[in-house]
Design a protein that fits this description.
This protein has 22 helices and no strands. With about 475 residues, the protein is mainly alpha-helical. It is globular, with a radius of gyration of 22 Å.
């Protein structure tokens, strides 16, 4: 990605793309919306599912975690499906599965059946959330590819906010949790029907020798014929050079893989999805009523959307590291506040709203830092010909640790207490901050070779600073615009 501001990105988008591209991106990003909706909706629904099924702590964690296990399986299978049946039809299939599983969840007669339904739902979520950015990246002009791929992350947080609002609107309705879960079928239908009307990815078409069809797709989204020729040439180059999983563990690529995997792991083990999945439960710990906890959760969802938008607009202007480090500091501070809040009855009595403030600070810090930066950086730090398998490995790792953290939260609260649990996450956040400050390079406006060179130098104890050598920049300039590409 370049160094443009959010306004520059919009101006550039108008110059490089036709309106149809933005319709296509919006439909494809419904995969991210599905992930966000189901992530958010279960947080409020769980408060009502627990008494309805007399769910134990293990069953509650399994209701949350089964979707994540399914998502790991879905993400692992999505690479094969996207190649075998195309990106388009993989997303149609995931939409159909999501509709069926959402309705199954709504009509579940017990905790075990609900756990099974949410596992199937996870298959759809894992597949859709992985293929959505891949499909958008392969259709969008390279000049605005990074911004459009980031739109998928925006749809995730919008989905979370909508889910929180649905939880709020249905909190007083009979069988409220069934409505909350069942309404997820609506965006699932929109994804399935919408993708039927969308074209195939030009890269998938060219891999099968259907170059004329690929050109026709690019003509629907590009304003400039010159851009089409360049894009097709890029696709030919990447397809010819693309490597596999074995290639991404080579010594030359290993420093990038360490950074990508660490970002994937730390994004989860700072406890983000304990807040997303259990926000009303955490607020109930403070003494809030069920109704009040669900209402307060809406403010958390709104904060998530607003600060994600801020990050998307400003990441190119101020760089990735600044937001990553600032956001991580905010995470640590908010977790420490939560730890102190739950450790001291005096603090809880003197400042009963402090926990809500800390949760809002936490989600704002995540939304400007680890939330978008993880997904953006793993699309930038890997060589183009290895980006797909490397991103797949990071994505699967991210889902796996999402499950680990979400499945263990209530057990940690039982073992360590509320205060101890949040202080543990704060300690993990401190480790993350040290790693980010010492090992994660700035990727904004830098080529893949420059990033690799910095990571290799860091292994030998050298500084992580910017290499401004004109000779280096000239030798690798053709990668700069591709850094947010395929």
């Amino acid at each position: 990605m370049g160094s443009s501001s959010g306004g520059g990105l919009i101006h550039k988008a108008r110059g490089e793309a036709k309106p149809f591209l933005f319709v296509l991106a919006a439909v494809a990003a419904l995969g991210g919306f599905l992930f966000g909706y189901d992530t958010g909706v279960i947080s409020g629904a769980l408060l009502f599912i627990k008494p309805a099924f007399h769910a134990t702590t293990l069953q509650q964690q399994s209701i949350i975690g089964s979707l994540l296990v399914g998502a790991v399986v879905g993400a692992a299978a999505s690479g094969y499906l996207a190649e075998a049946m195309s990106r388009k039809w993989t997303k149609v299939l995931s939409g159909c599965i999501y509709v069926a599983a959402a309705l199954w969840s709504a009509f579940a007669s017990g905790a075990t059946e609900l756990i099974a339904a949410r596992f199937v739902l996870g298959l759809a979520v894992g597949t859709a959330s992985f293929v959505a950015p891949m499909y958008i990246a392969e259709v969008a002009p390279r000049q605005i590819r990074g911004g459009l791929v980031s739109f998928n992350q925006m749809m995730v947080v919008i989905g979370i906010l909508i889910a929180y609002i649905i939880d709020f609107l249905f909190k007083g309705v009979a069988d409220n949790w069934r409505w909350m879960l069942g309404l997820g079928a609506v965006p699932g239908v929109a994804l399935a029907v919408g993708m039927i009307l969308m074209p195939h990815s030009p890269r998938w078409l060219m891999e099968r020798g259907r170059d004329d069809e690929a050109r026709a797709v690019l003509e629907r989204v590009h304003r400039r014929a010159k851009g089409i020729d360049s894009e097709m040439e890029d696709i030919r180059h990447v397809v010819a050079e693309e490597g596999g999983v074995r290639d991404i563990v080579r010594a030359a690529v290993r420093p990038m893989l360490i950074v990508g995997m660490a970002l994937a792991i730390f994004q989860q083990i700072v406890g983000i999805n304990t807040v997303i999945y259990y926000a009303p439960t955490i607020l109930r710990f403070t003494g809030s009523s069920v109704s009040s906890a669900i209402t307060q959760t809406v403010f958390i969802g709104l904060t998530n959307v607003v600060f994600t938008a801020v990050a998307v607009l400003l990441l190119d202007r101020f760089g990735r590291r600044a937001f990553l480090l600032l956001g991580t500091v905010g995470l640590i501070v908010s977790l420490l506040v939560l730890g102190v809040f739950f450790a001291s009855a005096g603090v809880r009595h003197a400042a009963p709203d402090l926990a809500l403030f800390a949760l809002i600070l936490y989600i704002a810090s995540f939304a400007i830092g680890l939330g978008p930066v993880f997904w953006l950086m793993i699309s930038e730090i890997f060589p183009l010909h290895l980006r797909s398998p490397a991103m797949a490995l990071c994505t699967i790792t991210n889902w796996a640790f999402n499950f680990l953290v979400s499945f263990t939260f209530l057990s940690l609260v039982s073992a360590l207490g509320r205060s101890g649990t949040f202080l543990l996450y704060a300690a993990v956040g401190l480790l993350a901050l040290v790693f980010f400050a010492t090992r994660v390079p700035e990727t904004n406006g830098r080529s893949l070779e420059e990033i690799e060179q910095q990571l290799q130098h860091k292994r030998r104890g050298k500084a992580l600073g910017r290499d401004d050598s004109p000779a280096v920049a000239a030798a690798i300039a053709h990668y700069v615009t591709g850094a947010s590409g395929e």
